[in-house]
Amino acid sequence: MVPDSKGQIRIWSELLKMPYIRDVLVLCSRSTPSEYLDFLEERYIDYLVVGYQHVNLETALEELNTKFGVKKIRIDSGGVLNGIFLRTGLVDEVCLLIHPELVGGEVNNSIFQEGDLGDGNAPIRLQLDNVEKIKDDIIYLKYKVFNEMLK
After folding, report:
1. What is the rounded distance in angstroms from the CA atom of residue 138 to the CA atom of residue 65?
2. Does domain 74-151 have CATH number 1.10.260.40?
3. What distance in Å separates the CA atoms of residue 108 and residue 116, rounded to the nearest whole number?
4. Class of residue 118 by CB neighbours under 10 A (exposed 0-12, middle 13-18, buried 19+)
5. Predicted TM-score (pTM) of this structure
6. Where along the chain do the CATH 3.40.430.10 domains lie?
């Protein structure tokens, strides 16, 4: 499932050749250009229109459950989408892999990017649920999310 309400992703044939991708469902909104929806249809790529200006992720998850019986999803994403899912209360668990490598740099990047905390926004509390050392000294951390917005 890939949100793309602006119709920017055009490399679906290359993505579908990757060994870990079996199916794709593109999430669009009513503002998605009709030309892009035609592009997807011509390539037999399934899409779902949920939301007006932007993809409504809560509605998308409800539709995934109703149409496909999906009860859980795993989000492998960048910080922006991760942050949106967290701030909208759609995440109940966070799993992190800590690799024993250090990378320097000056570009601010985070696995959870969302606007700065302001009025009405409190930090999202996590409770450690599991710690495991896996191969090559990688540490697996599993947290439960305590967010008042969770449904």
Report:
1. 33
2. no
3. 13
4. exposed
5. 0.74
6. 74-151
Q: Residue 114, SS3?
A: coil
Between CA 3 and CA 56 the distance in angstroms is 9
C-alpha to C-alpha distance for 57 and 3, rounded to whole angstroms:
9
Quick one: 141 exposed, middle or buried, by C-beta within 10 A (0-12, 13-18, 19+)?
middle
Q: pLDDT for 55-102, tens place per residue?
A: 999 999 999 999 989 888 888 888 888 888 888 889 899 888 888 887
Per-residue exposure over 21-49, b if at least 16 CB sit within 10 Å of its own CB, e if not: eeebbbbbbeebeeebbebbeeeebebbb
Q: Do the beta carbons of residue 71 and residue 65 sit within 8 Å?
A: yes
Average pLDDT over residues 39-58: 94
Average pLDDT, the chain: 86
Tokens 């602006």 appear where? 6
